[in-house]
């Protein structure tokens, strides 16, 4: 399928979602306690975030993630429909409309983007994973395969293919024997892997790929190092605001 | 050719899945909600993989998963959840209900293809 077809479908769907978001925001502005408006906003924001990555536009992904986070809090009642919140959502929607109209290769697309992102993030401190969207971290993944896998060697290869598709496999090594004397005595220690992966994906995303191989108690995922950060204007502004 | 049903209310996601998997020898069918998905599941007896959005309109992805797992005719189909939400508890519930894992949207096409290959490994037919 040509990329142009995917882009056209993406653009049409995003434009429809933004119209829905705009209408629901207007409804919320008129009736601040409207559960129906909150629900409409949340659903449209959720779908928008989901498709934000379809064409791999990082700024679009960041802004839709920030928008959805605020709408999530609004839906859960942890943020109220204040004038400030409505104005920030409006700025976010307007910026997304400008982006999708102009297209990712246009400089005009990002006019107002940083300010809209900051206004949304100022309403709610972003979760670390959200703040670092698109910036790789180093993770250690330690797992022992559960016994239900039909073809272990083939499955291991495909697991590594999956992890490799998430970023850069820095190292892969088999696990040494378990320190569990009980398991050693029973001679039933399953084989395992220790993988170092550099990726911009979240720990939850990595876990979603690994749970097929290992149960929760046989899977450990740790972020080892601070990510490399190319601190762009929106993130720097958030940091400065936090340190004030 | 292996058959995949993707259940997601976003046409962009369904198209992205088709664009990623069709070159890898998968046939991709789409449904925008749980009711349409159940219709596909009734009509097909040779589905190799089911991709389910967690947050479907109407019947949720979790409800649909539970129905798939409760039906002896469909419970053999590997199910992968698609999610934008960071709701770990919900995803863990899905896994316990029988899902093989999850992909967090947005996801890249290469990851989707390698995941589909892996989950259909055990459903390979001669």
Task: Characterise the protein shown here.
The complex is a heterodimer of chains A (244) and B (126). Helix content of chain A is 57%, strand content 13%. By secondary structure, chain A is of the alpha+beta class. Chain A has a four-stranded antiparallel sheet. In chain A, helix 3 (58-76) runs antiparallel to helix 4 and helix 4 (83-102) packs antiparallel against helix 5. In chain B, helix 1 (11-21) crosses helix 5 (109-119) and helix 3 (61-70) runs parallel beside helix 4. The mean pLDDT of chain B is 91. Chain B has a five-stranded parallel sheet, with helices on both faces. With 126 residues, chain B is α/β, with parallel strands linked by helices. In chain B, strand 1, helix 1 (11-21) and strand 2 form a beta-alpha-beta unit. Chain A binds chain B through residues 1, 5-6, 9-10, 13-14, 43, 46-47, 49-54, 56, 61, 68, 127, 129, 150-151, 154-155, 158-159, 161-162, 164-166, 201-202, 204-205, 208-212, 216, and chain B through 8-13, 15-16, 18-19, 22, 53, 55, 57, 81-86, 88, 91-92, 95, 100-108, 110-111, 113-115, 117-119, 121-122.
Give short descriptive properties of this protein.
heterodimer, A: 244 residues, alpha+beta, 4 strands, 57% helix, B: 126 residues, alpha/beta, five-stranded parallel β-sheet, 5 helices, 5 strands, 41% helix, 21% strand
Provide a brief overview of the structure:
By secondary structure, chain A is an alpha+beta fold. Chain A has ten helices and four strands; from the N terminus they run H-H-H-H-H-H-E-H-E-H-E-H-E-H. Chain A has a four-stranded antiparallel sheet with strand order 2-3-1-4.
Please give the share of residues in helix of chain B.
40-55%
What strand order characterises the main sheet of chain B?
2-1-3-4-5
Helical fraction of chain A: 55-70%
Which two chains share the most extensive interface?
A-B, 42 and 43 residues
What is the string of SSEs of chain A from the N terminus onward? HHHHHHEHEHEHEH
Q: Which range does the strand content of chain A fall in?
A: 5-15%
What is the residue-averaged pLDDT of chain B?
A: 91
Radius of gyration of chain B: 13 Å
Largest sheet geometry of chain A: 4 strands, antiparallel
Strand content of chain B is 15-25%
Shape of chain B: globular
């Amino acid at each position: 399928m040509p990329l142009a077809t995917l882009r056209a479908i993406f653009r049409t769907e995003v434009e429809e979602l933004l119209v829905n978001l705009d209408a629901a925001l207007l409804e919320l502005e008129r009736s601040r306690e409207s559960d129906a408006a909150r629900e409409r906003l949340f659903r449209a924001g959720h779908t928008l975030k989901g498709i934000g990555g379809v064409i791999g536009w990082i700024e679009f992904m960041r802004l839709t993630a920030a928008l959805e986070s605020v709408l999530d809090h609004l839906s859960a009642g942890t943020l109220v429909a204040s004038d400030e919140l409505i104005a920030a959502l409006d700025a976010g929607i307007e910026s997304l409309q400008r982006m999708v109209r102009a297209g990712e290769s246009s400089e005009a697309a990002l006019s107002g983007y940083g300010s809209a992102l900051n206004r949304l993030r100022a309403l709610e401190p972003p979760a670390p994973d959200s703040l670092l969207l698109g910036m790789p971290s180093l993770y250690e993944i330690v797992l022992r395969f559960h016994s239900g896998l039909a073809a272990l060697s083939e499955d291991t290869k495909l697991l590594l293919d999956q992890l490799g598709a998430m970023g850069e496999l820095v190292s892969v090594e088999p696990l040494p024997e378990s320190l569990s004397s009980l398991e050693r005595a029973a001679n039933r220690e399953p084989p395992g892997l220790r993988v170092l992966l550099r990726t911009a994906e979240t720990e939850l995303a990595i876990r979603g790929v690994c749970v097929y191989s290992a149960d929760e108690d046989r899977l450990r995922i740790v972020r080892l190092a601070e990510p490399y950060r190319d601190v762009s204007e929106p993130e720097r502004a958030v940091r400065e605001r936090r340190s004030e | 050719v292996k058959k995949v049903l993707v259940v997601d209310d976003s046409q962009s996601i369904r198209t992205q899945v088709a664009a990623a998997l069709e070159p890898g020898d998968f046939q991709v069918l789409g449904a925008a909600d749980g009711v349409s998905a159940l219709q596909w599941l009734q009509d097909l007896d040779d589905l190799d993989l089911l991709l389910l959005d967690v947050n479907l309109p109407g019947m949720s992805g979790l409800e649909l998963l539970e129905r798939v797992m409760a039906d002896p005719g469909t419970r053999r189909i590997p199910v992968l959840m698609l999610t934008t939400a960071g709701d770990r508890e919900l995803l863990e519930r899905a896994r316990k209900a029988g899902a093989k894992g999850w992909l967090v949207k947005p996801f890249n096409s290469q990851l989707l293809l390698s995941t589909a290959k892996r989950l259909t490994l055990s459903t390979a037919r001669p």
